[in-house]
Amino acid sequence: MKIPASIRLLYADQQESRERLKDLVDCLLRPRLQNGWHYESRVKTAESFTLKVESGRVHDLLTVEDFFAATIVVRNGLEVAEAERIVVELFAAHERRPPLDTETHKAPDQFPFDDLRHYVRWKDDPTMPPSGLDGVLFEIQIKTFLQHAWSIATHDLIYKSDDANWGKMRIAFQIKAMLEH
After folding, report:
1. Contact indicator for 50, 122 with CB cutoff of 8 Å
2. Which tens digit of pLDDT belongs to each residue from 89-133?
């Protein structure tokens, strides 16, 4: 993929700080997770950053909300609230998507990505030297193992494919519907 110089510079300006943020968040979150939970995190690649920018899904190129993102995977839906409590306790809350568990904006025949995401900001520990990251926005997804398995199995097919295959996408979304139900 050819990345325009302007986008490459925007990416490079943010990459180092998000790598440092990743290290800090990983060290803070991992010890607090319950036994049996799974955790992973990543900093967007230059290619993924470019796709997001070129698709028009970015409002502010200097604060891409998922430049750094983490995922907490819990055993079942009953443990989601505990994972949310940990996230809200450790970081400054910015936005929750979807806002409520009891409502949806989705039509019954549509299945856009709508797993639970918290957009939070890093907050420095006042007893430690400043990190230079105070207030940086990032994403934490919280999902069950079933949701996580579905996203692994279908992510590239649905979100990164150059060749849309209606049949495969239809099956992937049928599975998603069964998981949601």
Report:
1. no
2. 999 999 999 887 766 665 666 555 568 999 999 999 999 999 999
Q: How many residues does this entry show for the chain?
A: 181
- CB contact set of 38 (below 8 Å; sequence gap of 6+): 71, 72, 73, 145, 148
The Cα 95–Cα 112 span in angstroms is: 19
Q: Which of 181, 52, 58 is nearest to 111 (CA)?
A: 181
Contact 38, 81 (CB under 8 A): no
Q: Residue 181: what pLDDT?
A: 66
Considering the entire predicted model, what is its pTM? 0.86
Provide the residue type at 31 as one letter.
P
